TrEMBL record:
Keywords: Aromatic hydrocarbons catabolism, Isomerase, Manganese, Metal-binding. This is Muconate cycloisomerase. It comes from Duganella guangzhouensis. InterPro entries: Chloromuconate_cycloisomerase (IPR013370), Enolase-like_C_sf (IPR036849), Enolase-like_N (IPR029017), Enolase_C-like (IPR029065), Mandel_Rmase/mucon_lact_enz_CS (IPR018110), Mandelate_racemase_C (IPR013342), Mandelate_racemase_N_dom (IPR013341). GO terms for biological process: amino acid catabolic process; peptide metabolic process. Pathway: Aromatic compound metabolism. Residues 144-241 form the Mandelate racemase/muconate lactonizing enzyme C-terminal domain. Coiled coil: none annotated.
Amino acid sequence: MIQNIDTFLVDVPTIRPHRLSVATMNTQTLVLVRVTCDDGIVGWGEATTIGGLNYGEESPESIKTNIDTYIAPLITGMDASAVAKAMARIRKTIQGNRFAKCAIETALLDAQARRLKVPLSELLGGRVRDALPVAWTLASGDTAKDIAEAEHMLEIRRHRIFKLKIGLRSVQDDVAHVLAIKRALGDKASVRVDVNQAWTETDAVRGIAALEAGGIDLIEQPVKAHNVGALARLKQRFDVAIMADEALHGPDDAMALARADAADVYAVKITQSGGLLPALEVATVARLAGIELYGGTMLEGGIGTAATAHLCSTFPTLAWDTELFGPLLLTQEVLSEPLVYKDFMLQVPTGPGLGVEIDTDKLRAMQRQ
Ligand SMILES: O=C(O)C[C@H]1C=CC(=O)O1
Ligand SMILES: [Mn+2]
């Protein structure tokens, strides 16, 4: 039986300002969910967003409040081992709130996988890979600093895929910044950009033409999320891969974007999809439509990152790798043992459930009062 559902807000400073077109982050707020079951099993889930309400329509505070007030009472007392029944009740009754649903579903699946003594990946179809290549986002806002950061990551063998956040400056200045970084790194690295919806279609035509000519491998969400027509025209116009991120809010969007031939690649995010199982459906739509996959992040800490890693480990192909670096951007950790990053890869945890343990003393010290 599901006995208790507790939620915690944890504010963690980032290692440096993280500059996106929609916000500059100096801290990340983790919403952690703990599901306690009457058989003594405890499951954890997490949701994060970026810059309060700057990125999405849920804030950390709304996620916590909506879980505490509306979602937890709906499923408390239900059979904890019937995860699908609990989630069906939530999905039938609660509109939207994909991030909150993701955190709850993750916690229920973590508990159930622990109960069955299997890694969470095995409840999602089973893992076909044990380690995932991880991109790093260069977002200091300064070209020389970004190059130095990338060189350091290559040297310590942590990342050789770099995503640059652009869209805040003029197209011309952004292109100059990106191509300077690409020239400095050469063939040692894959360089990609994330415009976070900042360009108009005409900006995008100019910007993408220059980036493609300069050897950039991937263009993420160049135009507004709702402008599927423009995304489709860009996808069809250019050879460089176009990735949908903010346009993709779960399986229905995955289907609509596929029908519109609007993207070469999907950034699969468990929060944006509304949970691990809807995210798996996004990946299945992509596979059936010939769209390639990328494991995306909302800059989660260790719990949400581990959850996404379990999901991505089940994908038969993962052509564009992942960006599961969230914990590395944060100065503090709620896990007793951090996730393992080595040789450019994140190791998918092997223990039962998420395969990570929460240090409750650390959490008590870090949680918002
Ligand atoms: O992809 C996004 O839009 C959000 C996020 C992921 C990595 C990063 O630096 O920001
Ligand atoms: Mn993005």
